[in-house]
Structures are given as structure tokens and as C-alpha cells.
UniProtKB/TrEMBL annotation:
Name assigned to this protein: Esterase
Keyword Signal in annotation: yes
Record carries keyword Chloroplast: no
Keywords: Signal
Signal sequence range: 1-19
PANTHER family xref list: ENTEROCHELIN ESTERASE-RELATED, IRON(III) ENTEROBACTIN ESTERASE
Xref: SUPFAM superfamilies: alpha/beta-Hydrolases (SSF53474)
Region (Disordered): 119-142
Length: 571
């Protein structure tokens, strides 16, 4: 009888253990400093590699399963506990994982507290020289990947320790051609309540030292976080470089192609007949993203003024820029395309031309595939019989790799309150007002996709570039006529051509003066097409620093004022 009772007790205990919910604990190592932040837990079906390296915003097809938790004061011995309350994607709950073998890894994205001059107090991940990459941010802890068998129905607990830490990133050294500038921005430091810096990489022309009286035009190449001047290489391609394969462009050895084109740019840069000018790329990474979008905003502060009134004058003074509006131009693609156009619109007399390639939405009637002013939901196209999920990423053939819900749910895993460092969250931070909690007011509910029309109205009045141009054309028109040039592929991966259609119709309707710019479309061209019809998208996207030069030189010749210096830099 006693043996029977013991057997029964053990059986009941085993059933109780089996019924316990499936959980994962993520702990800091004993010597780690406590911190606020976001813990990201990943399950990959791939046996090889690190899950943190498999996360992509481009496709939902091969992503690891991801879950996120915001923690306050995470400290060793008091781990973050993941259960079904943690938000997940593509599986919404931890218990939704299918039984099987997974590679498991966690990353802790550390936050700091910012007390801004407007009185708001927020916890955000500072940039540490990596361009807001949570998986690689110096000081962030991560775990060694482990292979485990998971069966949520059987319950149990997995314990993970964040046993590794990302090292610091060294600054790039100056070279003969590339100089690195770092200034403390008084405007941004006041806003953020702590010393805040801007950096820039400056490409100087051939003969700079030999022509001390020469003064140069300035080309501002906008785009995502640059760790140096993009696409510039003073040596031929590495003969030992193992060729890779570009899935996007279906090209073998695309890494070698990139090196060859970078070397070709250098050869053109030093050639006798190439115009001499300065090129700069700006590092304005911030707690929300890899760059600020180069405008003033409620959530990021006065980055537009800091760049144009502090950084640009400092660079022109140090490197002998002409320092005149007729001799400044701006260009870029994607984020940089929007920034180029916005810079020309918001600082109309400071620049003499903007070349905006594949720009982020320049008209919010086509915020990718969403009309922020008429649609009620960002995730679904509502119908009488059923709703249809809206696409977010495609190729030119129309294959869909992620929906709007996919892209936004992935961001929600990486950070709540707009802190993911992702594309939709930075748009929200730049274009939107602050919410009552000090974080960006959501343009839509991140869970349901329901659009907030009041926030959309704020976006329209302050950052819808097409709307602003039409609204203010009486004063803006004389200052920007002939300066705005827009290029986009008809197969843009993020549907950015849709906004350009609206913008073109509006711009062509403007009078007194006529807008006098250019809009061009690339047949079959995907994202980053820059207006070059002579080469494929794989090559044209590598030529931003040279493709617009003939148009820029023509503009200078036609618009430079009497007595302008057109000769000291032409040697």
C-alpha cells in the first residue's frame, strides 16, 4: 500500500511539473552592472550561426522567432522571465512555438535616462558609435547560442545567461583623402540635457594642400549611419576576397563589384578633368535611430539647425568651402533621398539643388501603401466581405516578403514606446509630436494598426513635403524653383514610388513660378535607383557621388551670381 501511495504521489508530481508553463529566464552575469533596457529572446530553426545575425527587416520568411521584454533595473540574480506575457513575432506567444530543436540566444539592449530641456524624462538606448544596431551596440550583453529541444506543451524552463558583451568600436583614422570631424552641438546638448556631438566624414579633393587659396563647393551626401565615406577605395579589389552572392541582384561576387566600383570612384576623383569639391557624410545617430532625418523635431530635437547652422559652417571653415548657397548641393537615396529634399525645403536658400533618389515617403497620401488621411487602419485594406493584409516589402515582380503587420510587430518585439530603432518607429519619432509620457505619439496603434487622425494631421502640417510645398509655394516657390529632382524605381521594394506619383502631380500643378525640377522613373528598378538609365540598379546605387556631378556643374554655371568664384577650384 505504501509503495502504491508513493507511486501515485510521484505520478501526480510529474503531471504537475509537466503542466507548468514553458518559460525562459534571461540573467546577467554576476559582474554585470544593473540597467534598464529591452531583452530580446530569439529561437532559430537553423543549427548554425547566431540568431541575432539572422534578424532582418527585409523579409519575414526566414526570421527567427523573437520575443521582447522591457525591464527596469535588471540585475544579476534577478533574471527577466519570459512567458506568454512577452510580445512575440512571428509567434505571438512563447507557448505557440512548435515542438522542435531551436538555437536560442538573447540580447540585452541597455537604456539610459534622458532628462530633456522640455521637461520630459525618457529611457532610451544611446548610440555608441555603431549606428543604433542593437545586436552590436558596444556595452550590450548577449548570450552564447545554445541548441535546445522545445516543447511548450510539456512545460519546463530554459535558463540563459548573457555571458558576453559587445566591445567598443574604434574611430576610423584620418587618411590622405578622408578627414573626420567631431563637434559638440550646443543646440542638441541643450535639448538632450547632456553633451551631444555630431560627426562628419569629409572627402577632400585632389590638390587640396597644393592650392591653399582654392575654395570649394560642398556636396552633402545624406543617408543612413556612415562609419566612413561610402564607396571610396584607393586600392584595387582585394585579390583574396572570397566572392559572395547577392540574392537581391542575383550577382555572383557582388562584394568584388562593390570594391571595384569604389576604386573606380577614386580613380575618377583624382583624374585631371574631374571637378574639385568637398563631399561630406554626416553621422547623426541618436537614441531613436541611425540618423535624425536632418530636420528639427519634437522627439529628437533641433538636428536640422545643428547640422546646417553648426556643423556645415564648421566644415566649410576648416576645409575652405565657398560657404555660399549657390555652391551647396545635397543628394542621397532612401532615407537620404527624403533628407535631401527636406533640407532643400526647410533651408531653401542654403542649397542650390537637391537630388532625391528613392526617397522615403514625400507625400503621406502614400505612406508606402497607406493613405494616412483617409485610411483608418495601417495593417489591412478593409473590405465588405473580408480584410486584406497590406504589403510592406516586395520585389519588382510583386513577390511579397513582409506585410505591414510583420514589419511593425517585429519592431514591437525590439522595443515598445517607439524604441525599436526600426524604420516605422523613427518616422513616428521624427514626424510626430511627443505623447503625454514623453515618447513619440503613435501614428497608429502598434497592435491593431488603427490610425490616429490627430497625429496624422500633425504629420501633414509639419513634415508632408508635398503638402508643405503646395501650401507655402507663394514664399517657397521663388527659393526652390529648379532645385528639386526626384528619381525612383517603378519596382521600389517599399512602394516609395507611390508617394512620388502624388508629388509629381502636385509639383507640376504649381505656378508663379513653375517648379522647374525633374521626376524620373526606372523601369523594373528596385530600391536605391538613382536616375541612371544606362546601368542596372546593382551598379547605379554605387554611383551617387559622381552621377549628379554634371547636373550640379550645369546648375552652378547657370545660377552663380556675378563675381562668384568659379575658377579657384577648377584646376
Amino acid at each position: 500500500m505504501r509503495r502504491f501511495l508513493l507511486t501515485a504521489i510521484f505520478a501526480l508530481a510529474a503531471q504537475a511539473a509537466a503542466a507548468a508553463p514553458f518559460t525562459v529566464t534571461v540573467d546577467l552575469p554576476k559582474d554585470a552592472a544593473p540597467s534598464d533596457g529591452r531583452v530580446v529572446l530569439m529561437f532559430s530553426t537553423k543549427a548554425e550561426g547566431e540568431p541575432r545575425r539572422q534578424v532582418s527587416g527585409e523579409t519575414a520568411l526566414n526570421s527567427p522567432f523573437m520575443f521582447g521584454l522591457t525591464v527596469d533595473g535588471l540585475k544579476p540574480g534577478q533574471p527577466a522571465v519570459f512567458d506568454d506575457t512577452a510580445f512575440g513575432w512571428p509567434a505571438r506567444k512563447l507557448s505557440s512555438l512548435k515542438p522542435g530543436d531551436y538555437t536560442v540566444q538573447a540580447v540585452f539592449n541597455r537604456y539610459e535616462t534622458y532628462r530633456r530641456s522640455d521637461g520630459s524624462v525618457v529611457k532610451l538606448p544611446p548610440d555608441r558609435g555603431e549606428g543604433q544596431q542593437w545586436a552590436d551596440k558596444p556595452g550590450n550583453n548577449y548570450s552564447t547560442p545554445v541548441r535546445v529541444h522545445v516543447d511548450p506543451a510539456q512545460g519546463g524552463r530554459i535558463a540563459i545567461t548573457l555571458d558576453k558583451i559587445n566591445p567598443p568600436i574604434a574611430d576610423k583614422p584620418d587618411t590622405e583623402w578622408i578627414k573626420h570631424v567631431r563637434i559638440k552641438s550646443e543646440l542638441l546638448s541643450k535639448y538632450w540635457g547632456r553633451p551631444t556631438y555630431l560627426r562628419a566624414h569629409v572627402l577632400i579633393p585632389k590638390g587640396f594642400a597644393d592650392h591653399p587659396k582654392a575654395r570649394y563647393p560642398l556636396m552633402v551626401y545624406h543617408g543612413h549611419f556612415p562609419d566612413d565615406i561610402d564607396g571610396f577605395r584607393t586600392t584595387p579589389p582585394d585579390p583574396d576576397l572570397k566572392p559572395d552572392y547577392s540574392e537581391r541582384f542575383h550577382l555572383e561576387g557582388y562584394n568584388r563589384i562593390q570594391q571595384q566600383e569604389a576604386y573606380a570612384f577614386y580613380q575618377k576623383w583624382i583624374s585631371p578633368d574631374f571637378p574639385r569639391f568637398l563631399v561630406i557624410q554626416i553621422d547623426h545617430a541618436n537614441p531613436y535611430y541611425d540618423d535624425s532625418y536632418a530636420v528639427n523635431s519634437a522627439n529628437l530635437g533641433p538636428y536640422g539647425d545643428a547640422i546646417n547652422k553648426e556643423l556645415i559652417p564648421a566644415i566649410e571653415k576648416q576645409f575652405r568651402g565657398l560657404g555660399q548657397g549657390w555652391a551647396r548641393f545635397t543628394y542621397g537615396g532612401s532615407t537620404g533621398g527624403w533628407e535631401a529634399m527636406a533640407t532643400q525645403v526647410f533651408y531653401p536658400e542654403m542649397y542650390n539643388g537637391a537630388f532625391a533618389a528613392c526617397p522615403d515617403p514625400i507625400d503621406f497620401r502614400a505612406y508606402t501603401v497607406i493613405n494616412l488621411y483617409k485610411d483608418t487602419n495601417a495593417y489591412v485594406l478593409k473590405g465588405a466581405a473580408q480584410d486584406v493584409e497590406r504589403p510592406a516589402v516586395r520585389n519588382y515582380l510583386g513577390d511579397i516578403f513582409a506585410t505591414q503587420r510583420d514589419s511593425n510587430y517585429q519592431e514591437l518585439v525590439l522595443g515598445d514606446k517607439g524604441r525599436s530603432g526600426g524604420q516605422y518607429d523613427i518616422w513616428q519619432a521624427v514626424y510626430g509630436p511627443q505623447g503625454p509620457d514623453g515618447y513619440p505619439a503613435p501614428i497608429w496603434d502598434k497592435l491593431t494598426g488603427e490610425i490616429d487622425p490627430k497625429v496624422a494631421a500633425y504629420w501633414r502640417e509639419n513634415y508632408d513635403l508635398t503638402y508643405i510645398l503646395k501650401r507655402d509655394w507663394a514664399t517657397l516657390g521663388p527659393k526652390v524653383a529648379g532645385k528639386l529632382h526626384i528619381y525612383v524605381g517603378l519596382g521600389d521594394n517599399y512602394f516609395l514610388n507611390n508617394a512620388v506619383y502624388y508629388a509629381q502631380d502636385t509639383l507640376e500643378s504649381l505656378t508663379n513660378p513653375a517648379w522647374g525640377g525633374e521626376v524620373d522613373y526606372g523601369h523594373k528598378a528596385e530600391h536605391c535607383w538613382n536616375g541612371d538609365h544606362t546601368q542596372s540598379n546593382a551598379y547605379s546605387r554605387l554611383h551617387y557621388n559622381t552621377f549628379y556631378v554634371p547636373k550640379i556643374m550645369d546648375r552652378i554655371a547657370k545660377t552663380a551670381p556675378a563675381g562668384a568664384d568659379l575658377t579657384s577650384w577648377r584646376y
